[in-house]
Amino acid sequence: MTGLVFATRFEAKPFLALSRAEKTTPEPFEIYHTPLQPRLVITVCGMGKVAAAAAAQSLLLRHGVTCLVNAGACGALHDTAGFEVEQLLHIVSALEGDHEVLGKQSLPIVCQHRLKLQLPPARLVTCDRPVFDLRRRSKYAAFADVVDMEGAAIARVAAWHGVTCDLIKGVSDHARPTQRKTLLENLHAVSTRISEVLCQALDVNPHA
Fold first, then answer.
1. Which DSSP letter does residue 7 get?
2. pLDDT at position 102, please?
3. Collapsed DSSP state (helix, strand, coil) of residue 169
4. Shortest CA distance to 71 belongs to which of 93, 43, 102?
5. Residue 105's closest CA among 116, 120, 95?
6. Tens digit of pLDDT for each residue in 141-175?
7. Which of 55, 69, 96, 180 has the most CB atoms around its CB within 10 Å?
8. Domain coordinates of the chain in residue numbers?
9. Considering the entire predicted model, what is its pTM?
10. Cβ neighbour number for residue 145 with a 10 Å cutoff
11. If phi over 0 gives left and psi between -120 and 50 gives alpha, with beta otherwise, what is residue 203?
């Protein structure tokens, strides 16, 4: 059984529509099932690391999930080729940017993949506070390629339970001070591209 985690309804909406998923449980996390793939459980957890970790744990312990997938938008920390808006990426490692252990940056979690995706690899940093300033952007760019608010928490839960974890991220902005609006403007297009990749990777045929 695969558990698919979205942070927001905005990110989930295109995939929920394509997969004809219906909500089966409203609380504590929205749970959806699709008639097109009976071995898939979908949840919308809300933003932030705590919500993401709790939702991932719930999928594993309450819904019989044996592999986790998290999909959503991210901000690019580099302006080089390969990190343009709408570029999709397969995360190979994730760490918590605002978490330290005895004054030292926490170590990245290597993502053990199950899905065979033809997407470029990238390193993810996850922060509870959105990154839209040049100082933090420069700091995180030294050890990561993109930033989000949930991925590393889900990767950590997966590592604790010894299950696979595929993080699929789409670039919505470049984490600059003026780009909060840019994120919102690009969110639908990015989420639509992600939904198409997910349908293929998870064997969900919207034309069935």
1. S
2. 65
3. strand
4. 43
5. 95
6. 999 999 999 999 999 999 999 999 999 999 999 99
7. 55
8. 2-201
9. 0.95
10. 25
11. left
In which residue are the tokens 């839960």 written?
Answer: 157
**Contact call for residues 110 and 67 (beta carbons, < 8 A):** no
Distance of CA 150 to the CA centre of its chain: 6
Helix (H) or strand (E) holding 19: helix 9-19
Burial call 104-137: b when 16+ CB within 10 Å, e when fewer: ebeebbebebebebebeebbbbbbeebbbeeebb
Peptide bond before residue 108 is cis, with ω within 30 degrees of 0 = no
Return the CATH fold of 2-201. Answer: Rossmann fold (3.40.50)
| In contact, 109 and 159? CB cutoff 8 Å | yes
Single-letter amino acid, residue 144: A
Residue 67: helix, strand or coil by DSSP?
A: strand
Q: Which of 155, 152, 158 is nearest to 74 (CA)?
A: 152
Any idea what DSSP says for residue 105? E
How does pLDDT run across 105-114, given as a tens digit for each residue? 778 999 999 9
Closest alpha carbon to 89 in 124, 113, 114: 124
